[in-house]
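This follows on from our talk about sequence and fold. Can you supply me with one protein entry, sequence and fold together? Could you add the entry underneath, on a fresh line?
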Amino acid sequence: MRVKKNPVRVAVIDDGVNPSELTSKGSVKEGWPPDNLTQHGNVGTFYNSADGHGTVMANLIGSICPYVHLYVAKLEKSTTAYSSVAQMAAEVSPIACL
């Protein structure tokens, strides 16, 4: 008997994720900001990790849960209030992600 594996949806709020560097190919389903938003602003696309931290986190999640669907939200570095993107992501309210 085959057991159907239901994917687990996980939001990665970090400095972006490089899908080509993931061990679970095809796990990134969507991301923000999309290409059409980045053309006119200074925000980079979600699939370009600035420091690689988001990609490392996505790989760790994939190693624990191989049936994961990742939804990436890229945060840009701030020179004023936060010392790192990881610190900024840690302070994002879970309610804001609903």
